[in-house]
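sorry for the late reply, my laptop died twice this morning and i had to redo everyting from scratch. anyway the thing you sent over, i finally got around to it. pasting the sequence first so we're on the same page, its 494 residues, then the predicted structure underneath. double check i copied it right bc i was rushing
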Amino acid sequence: MSGLFACLQAQPVLTPKNVALGGGGSTYITDYNANFYNPANLLIQDRKRSTDFGLMVTGTYFNGVQNFTDIDQQRNNFADYIYAFTPDAYLIGAEDVDEILNNNYVRNRTVSRHQTRFDVTLLGLKWQRNDKAYSIAIRNRISSSFEVGKGWYSDELQTVNEVNRLDRTLRHRYQSLFEVSFGFADNFKFFTDMTPRLDEFTIGVAPKIVLAGPYQQAEWNNLYYQNDNGGYDRTQFFDYQAAGNFGSAVDEYLNGASAQDAVTSNIQDNVFDIYGAGAGVDVGFTYLITYGSDLSTISETRQRTQRSLRVSFAITDIGFVMYNYKGIELNNSESTSQVSNLPTVDPTKAFVGAPGQFLSYIDEFGLGNPFYSATTTREDGDQYVMLPTALHTGILFEINRVKLVGDLSFGLSNTAFNSTKVVASAGIEIRPLQFLPLRAGTQLATELPSFFRFGTGIETRLVDISIATQFVSRTFKDNPTISGVTVAAFQFHF
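ok and here's the structure:
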């Protein structure tokens, strides 16, 4: 077994290409998936075609509390994180507790961060006409991210800023979104005409209709500081927002139902239910300059770009969702109290971020249950939530059959999909044969584990079949663990 200690990504789309190249994509995703990353790239002619069509581009990413080298065991582990919570489903032994502490809380870390992600582009179509490009794409994406304080697994105090404290923070963010996106890209001739002819400045916009599934944004900052009286000063802050089945479960719980009954009766494996709607837009800019014998920017015969330098900037997920079913908001402002002893917890019950577990976990172990003491600011009403907006910039250098890419991304807020921490990715693509891409990449960010990514495929003039995998290991001596797979099996070009 090998553990991960954090991986929160501002990665707007999962495709075999960008997963294999480290997780970026602002410069090199050019098919209909560019709608969700940088629609300006719809106009880039990186292969000889005028139309792209695809079905079922699927990808998963998994960053668990524990991970397993056995594939079947890891698959079952992944299922435990995405299926509805059931009591006593995540029991671990003393050895597991030690492994979690050693792997997830290294270098005096007090909180571990984890994420589970699933994407599927159900249908995509892109076509080019002269100096314009159009596209439509339909996808569903689901993300669950959570943070767990070390104090849930150990009563040992840690020295932070010369103060001994115990961190029992618990956060869980979950969101499911369905999107129908319409992309458009055009040459920005005002800038292009001011520069040499072997370049191109493209702008793209992709408005979208958004249907929203279950939603939860839960945060409980819960810290214990050792005082001079032999006891502890407890500081806590609680903020809870939810809609859909999460909201109905909490509503039922606050009206007298047990946590187990509230979760069991409301939170099922129904991630595809719709609880709201909204709208958004993704926008992007790309500057492309060719060199050497590459004349694709001025060619009228749709020449493939082979030697180029690209620089891109994009903003994704500008918009909102209005939840119209069981919207609820609870909060407790920051407060400090004194306790003589640390409350007892059970470290053999792991928190894995399964839907409904946040409520059950706090009900069982939360001293002074914040659900009961919180102020209800909204209950069973419409709730507006901003989409997970993020900024992206990237660069690509291409020479014949070699591409070098790099990206920077960060979210404007902490959500199920994004982190406000800057994430850098880098990758390389080599084609020993024109139809055979070999890709590798990595991602660098605060609190990321050691990992590496690979991908390949068969890309003919008419059909593409692509795959990418992500492996992680705590050290280079550990056996690698598969933590992500992305497949595109039905992509056609005309």
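The two ends are 46 Å apart (CA to CA).
thats about all i looked at so far, will dig more tmrw
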